[in-house]
Task: inverse folding
């Protein structure tokens, strides 16, 4: 059975491990673009992460659309349920199949096949650290002249159109004490691990523990430090400062007592700005995209994206929407993208870019 080109290209991309070094993946992408005669280059962000840029100029004065994609994936622990790129029951398996090599494959072909005299100027951006601090995307939006009319991100959206997205902050919560013997009343009152447990048990919805650790303890010795990292996902109606107050209050309560530990709450250091939430304005191009999706799928559904990513950075400079295929297991051992969904999304985007 001859598979559609967008599916075959997704398979090829999934089979390239881009979880640690992007070099092989970037070489593959540049080779594809070079053979198609598409102008492209790789630029290093200030942090040293590479970003691949490619361009289709279109007619003079035409609106500028950027396809915002990423090549990197989270590390692959091995032991998945299928070989990378394997298709079973209409599902294409592999690390990054859903997030977001299917969207990247579609974007590459859309850019390659767009007529040179198209009514849109189309650009492709492929970052290599979206699963990290998105330094590549932040570098792009800060570059001179980056002012597209629309950024379209083909991340997985289950065939819906995300017109807004959440923001994120990460907080470091720490409990310290001099340590000491783990037995007796003295130990229980000066135990950072015990304070950490009380703190975690009282966290309200919207504050998510992502890591827990202790330092300096032994078999019969209390740890000197207990540490938690807490993620805050928030929308425009809330503020990051509210979380700081809540966390400080909970930490102080958990550390209370005559011989209590000392709590500390601070924002986690980050090399790029922590992403803020955003709404996308319904410009003419956004309305046109919604129309193309409805014509292709027979329906259109919009939603608010609860995750964060490169799209938060792009949204600081241009209307930014997310539209991509369905699947399951993002970042997990059984990650897959649904092949029929890949084809539907590709047709919808093709219709959008070729519409007058």
Result:
């Amino acid at each position: 059975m001859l598979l559609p080109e967008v599916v075959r290209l997704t398979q090829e991309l999934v089979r390239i491990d881009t979880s640690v070094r992007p070099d092989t993946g970037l070489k593959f992408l540049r080779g594809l673009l070079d053979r198609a005669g598409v102008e492209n280059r790789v630029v290093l962000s200030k942090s040293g992460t590479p970003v691949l840029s490619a361009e289709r100029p279109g007619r003079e004065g035409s609106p500028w659309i950027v396809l915002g994609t990423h090549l990197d994936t989270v590390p692959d622990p091995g032991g998945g349920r299928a070989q990378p790129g394997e298709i079973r029951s209409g599902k294409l398996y592999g690390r990054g199949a859903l997030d977001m090599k299917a969207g990247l494959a579609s974007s590459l072909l859309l850019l390659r096949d767009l007529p040179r005299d198209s009514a849109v100027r189309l650009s492709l951006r492929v970052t290599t650290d979206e699963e990290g601090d998105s330094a590549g995307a932040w570098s792009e939006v800060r570059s001179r002249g980056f002012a597209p009319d629309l950024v379209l991100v083909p991340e997985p959206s289950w065939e819906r159109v995300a017109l807004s997205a959440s923001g994120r902050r990460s907080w470091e919560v720490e409990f310290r004490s001099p340590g000491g013997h783990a037995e007796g009343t003295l130990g229980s009152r000066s135990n950072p691990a015990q304070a950490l447990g009380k703190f975690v048990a009282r966290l309200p919805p919207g504050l998510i523990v992502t890591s827990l650790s202790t330092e300096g303890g032994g078999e019969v010795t209390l740890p000197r430090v207990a540490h938690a990292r807490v993620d805050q996902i928030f929308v425009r109606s809330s503020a990051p400062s509210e979380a700081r107050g809540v966390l400080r209050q909970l930490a102080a309560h958990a550390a209370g007592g005559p011989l209590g530990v000392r709590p500390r709450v601070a924002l986690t250091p980050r090399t790029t700005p922590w992403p803020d939430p955003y709404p996308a304005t319904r410009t003419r191009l956004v309305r046109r995209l919604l129309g193309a999706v409805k014509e292709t799928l027979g329906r259109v559904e919009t939603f608010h994206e609860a995750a964060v990513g490169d799209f938060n950075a792009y949204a600081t400079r241009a209307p930014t929407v997310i539209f991509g295929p369905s699947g399951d297991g993002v970042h997990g051992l059984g990650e897959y993208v649904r092949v029929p969904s890949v084809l539907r999304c590709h047709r919808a985007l093709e219709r959008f870019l070729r519409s007058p």
In short: Residues 178 and 345 are 58 Å apart (CA to CA). DSSP finds ten helices and 19 strands in the chain. The domain at 5-166+277-354 is CATH 3.40.630.10 (Aminopeptidase). The first helix runs from residue 5 to 14.
